[in-house]
Design a protein that fits this description.
The protein is α+β, with helices and mostly antiparallel strands and 354 residues long. It is 15% helix and 37% strand. It is built from eight helices and 22 strands. The longest helix is centred in the first third of the chain and has 12 residues.
Length: 354
């Protein structure tokens, strides 16, 4: 089905049904028929809870056992195994493996991905500026791959050459700089295929003095061309369409929140983030300690990134979504739930040290 056909069906709204059922419903009248045959109806004036139940009924849910938890991914920072070199510098060692694996990008919609460590996005690597990173990379996939890190490093560690063939290994080693948030991704050709298939992730380099305590999380904007026609049928934050809409991210009212935002969407020139009922400070690339702008909408090209910081003044659900309506309707739709007096240990952990 084309992206336009998916939109007629209410995005991936019937993804909980079988592929045959989706096609049958498309032939018999589109979204209205899909809702009717699912035993659902949409009425004006529905409460938030009713609309959530409606969407869950139409969209289905993610069954346990996929092995990737989008809620856990928000705050999973891999600091590596710390050792010291003869000069006393901190060396962080990581193991990265490229492997082919099917992933669930919407309820019942599976995508034949190429992954780092079996997940999309790959693990979020974290360190402090000046640390030495030692990434031992093994290619257990079916195609040649590399890891290209954004930032400053020797050219022989740039992840363009050498190309690592299936069954081969290579160790990347370089000093982490500058501080900020940087993507990493495969740089093998055809480049658009290797990135779109899922070979990307986030590297966070903290400034030497760290940042102020905040409830921190990582959001990677991505998309999936499920029928390989050169257009994305599914859009998401952290791979799972609509996941944070049905499971809002909980933070405290007026609590400092920091989002490391990276755009890795292929086939679309830009992606965006829009926050409802509040404003945020945006730090482009995170390489400055003072913000560039105060806004509620930011647009990023592929590979662009930045840090979003905010304190939500009002309790309740704050919608967060792409301000390209098509992207929102195809999965890039979320909520952040501001809860009064939310304890630090509840919901998303507070990160206190760089």
């Amino acid at each position: 089905m084309s992206r336009r056909d998916w939109l007629k069906l209410g995005g991936v709204g019937v993804a909980g049904l079988s592929g045959a059922s989706i096609l049958a419903l498309a032939r018999r009248g589109g979204a209205a028929a899909a809702l009717e045959r699912a035993g659902l109806r949409q009425e004006a004036g529905s409460t938030h809870e009713e609309l959530q139940q409606l969407r869950m009924g139409v969209f289905g849910d993610y069954p346990p056992g996929d092995g990737f938890d989008p809620m856990a991914f928000l705050t999973e920072f891999d600091y590596g195994r710390v050792v010291r070199d003869p000069s006393g510098r901190t060396v962080r060692e990581y193991e990265m493996v490229a492997v082919d694996r099917e992933i669930e990008v919407a309820p019942g919609v599976w995508f034949p991905a190429w992954t780092y460590n079996g997940q999309v996005p790959g693990p979020t690597l974290r360190c402090t500026e000046g640390d030495v990173l030692r990434i031992r990379f093994s290619n257990a996939g079916s195609h040649p791959h590399t890891i290209h890190f954004h930032g400053t490093h020797p050219t022989e560690m740039d992840g363009v050459f050498p190309v690592i063939e299936p069954g081969e290994r290579f160790t990347y080693e370089f000093e982490a700089k500058p501080f900020g948030v940087h993507p990493y991704h495969c740089h093998s050709l055809p480049l658009k295929r290797h990135i779109h298939k899922g070979l990307y992730g986030v590297l966070i380099v903290d400034p030497p003095g760290g940042r102020a305590p905040a409830r921190e999380m990582v959001m990677v904007m991505n998309g999936f061309d499920t029928n390989f026609d050169g257009e994305n049928e599914v859009y998401a934050i952290n791979t799972a369409a609509f996941y944070y809409q049905t499971r809002p991210i909980r933070v405290g009212v007026k609590e400092p929140v920091r989002i490391y935002l990276v755009n890795m969407t292929e086939f679309d020139p830009v992606n965006s983030l829009h926050l409802h009922a509040a404003m945020f400070r945006f730090y482009r690339t995170g390489t400055r300690l003072d913000h560039h702008e105060f806004t509620d909408t930011i647009m990023l090209c592929q590979g662009e990134r930045g840090i979003v910081e905010m304190e939500l003044e009002n309790p309740g659900l704050h919608m967060v979504h792409a301000h390209q309506s098509e992207f929102a309707e195809l999965g890039w739709m979320s909520f952040i739930d501001a809860v009064p007096h939310l304890a630090a240990e509840a919901g998303v952990p507070v990160h206190r040290h760089g």
